[in-house]
Amino acid sequence: MKDLEVLTRYKAWADGQFLSALYSLPEAELTAPRPIVFGSLIRTLNHAYQMDYVWKCHLLGKSHGLTTRNPEDCPD
Q1: Biggest CA pair distance of the chain
Q2: What is the mean pLDDT of the chain?
C-alpha cells in the first residue's frame, strides 16, 4: 500500500505544478495552436483529465465510453 500512497501523492504534486503553471498564463496562451501532440495547452490538460477518468473507471470496473485520447470536444 505504501507504493500506491507514494504514487498518489506524486500525482497530486505533479497536477499541482501543472495547474499552477497553466493558471499563470492568459487564456490566449492556453488555446493557441502549438506544435505539440494535442495541439494546445488546454487540449493537453483535457487529455490529462480524460486519462484520469479512464483510470478511475478501470479501478471501479466501469466502462469509460471514450474511444480516443484526443477527443474533439474540449472545454473552454
Answers
A1: 42
A2: 90
pLDDT digits (tens, 9 = 90+) for 20-48: 988 999 999 999 999 999 999 999 988 98
CA 38/CA 70 separation, integer angstroms: 7
| Structural domain spans, the chain | 2-60
Question: 66 near 47, Cβ under 8 Å?
Answer: no
**What is the SS3 string spanning 17-65?**
HHHHHHHCCCHHHHHCCCCCCCCCHHHHHHHHHHHHHHHHHHHHCCCCC
Higher model confidence: residue 66 or residue 75? 66
DSSP 69: S
